[in-house]
Amino acid sequence: MLRRLKASSDAYPSPHETPEDTQTTSEQGGNDGPMSSLQKYRSQTMKDYGLMIEYKHLRQHVPSGIYVLPSFDHSRIWYGAIFIHAGLYRNGVFKFTIFLPESYNGPGTYPRIVFNTNVFHPYVYEDTKELDLKPKFPEWDPELHYMVAVLTYLKGIFYMKDFPELATVANGTALDMFRHDPENYVNKVEECVDESLTSVYTNEQGSTIRFTKHNPAHDNLRQELFAQLDATPVSFDIWLAGVLELTSSD
């Protein structure tokens, strides 16, 4: 089971501590100001290291049909895509970006997932395209919740056949239409699927997941790569900058 890293002494504050918890006497009027900065640096370093471990775990357990790669420029921005093979959203290819705040790995600090194109769904905000995580994770507990669980939830929303009673949802119009006007709901979903396919070759600037149209020249390269990695456990494969990259488990 994946567990968060914890600091082993007061010199390495736990990632679960709040900024107030890590204040030194300097911040409260004492004389050891440099230690306060050092503690904060170490605390953030622990969070960053924990994030690397979590991504390694994710590579080994990512839900099928989902592909995720970190940004080249920022370790706390990940790019992803999900391929839907059944249900109302079948054939859709929905790209998304994951934003992990600096305080992620701390209690109450949610990751954010924003789709590139419209996803008409009760759990997706229509104006921002952001996935609402609170129906599944009412409170974020870093001891229990990880990105693999978030991505499992993300996949699950595309296959939902009913919705529980909630006080509020991200897109109330979509929920009302789902319950009272299913024909128009299906039409709106199909529009989203069509939009996702129309824009599949539109690559976000800086994205590490990039789609290009099929080139026969890639076929031989693909066969060679698969031949070389035939005996290697493969976590996932993805077209990256026009060439199939295979990421294997360590």
Automatic annotation (TrEMBL):
Kindly give the InterPro entries that the UniProt entry links to this protein.
UBC, UBQ-conjugating_enzyme/RWD
Chain spans, region Disordered: 1-38
| Domain UBC core per the UniProt entry, residue ranges | 46-198
Q: From what superkingdom does this record's organism come?
A: Eukaryota
Kindly give the PROSITE patterns that the UniProt entry links to this protein.
UBC_2
* UniProt biased composition (Polar residues): 21-38
The record's CDD domains line, in alphabetical order, gives:
UEV_AKTIP
The molecule here is called Unnamed protein product
